[in-house]
């Protein structure tokens, strides 16, 4: 899935007037696990697209505040009743796996929320929002920076909901 970002990452206060859907707003502001929200209304399935160490753009390194060239990129599609609802990308520097939590390097086809919301060791640092285009449709997404033992990683979620 190749989403095209069409707006800069920004704070919620700066984008809230552009949101014309209370449903999208509720997904963007969801505090709990997205997988749990999907499971509450749909039959949940996770499709793993990629999970490997690869190059990331400088803007992502800056968001993570890392110089590491060894960053694990994990991309998944979260489906509800076999319909894509969320595209998610997790960026995990090797130092976060080595010094923060080794389990982050072996998530595989399990939902990240199974780790992120069950352990009380993660700190949410920054949340920014942007708009994307896919297949001539516009979608909103968010990117969250977390730390574990002061080591950063990020989770980007684009909500494929109309």
Key words describing this protein structure:
alpha+beta, single chain, Chorismate lyase, globular, 162 residues, seven-stranded antiparallel beta sheet
Main beta sheet, described? 7 strands, antiparallel
State which percent range the strand residues make up.
35-45%
Write down the domain tally: 1
Question: Residue ranges: pLDDT <50 for 5 or more in a row?
Answer: none
| CATH fold field value | Chorismate lyase
What topology, given as strand order, has the largest sheet? 1-5-6-7-4-3-2
Mean pLDDT: 94
Alpha-carbon Rg, integer: 15 Å
Number of strands: 7
Number of helical regions:
6
CATH class: Alpha Beta
Can you give the helix content as a percent range? 10-25%
- The computed structural class is alpha+beta
Which second-level CATH architecture applies? 3-Layer(aba) Sandwich
Shape: globular
CATH-wise, what's the superfamily?
Answer: Chorismate lyase-like
How far from one another are the termini? 17 Å
Q: What is the chain-wise order of helices and strands?
A: EHHHEHEEHHEEE
Would you write up a description of this structure?
There is one protein chain. With 162 residues, the protein is an alpha+beta fold. The chain has one domain (4-159): Chorismate lyase, CATH 3.40.1410.10. It is built from 6 helices and 7 strands, in the order βαααβαββααβββ. The chain has helices at 12-15, 22-28, 34-41, 58-64, 94-99, 113-116, and strands at 4-5, 44-54, 71-80, 83-93, 122-134, 137-148, 151-159. It has a 7-stranded antiparallel β-sheet with strand order 1-5-6-7-4-3-2. β6 (137-148) and β7 (151-159) form a beta hairpin. The radius of gyration is 15 Å and the shape is globular. The two termini are 17 Å apart. The model has no long low-confidence stretch (mean pLDDT 94).
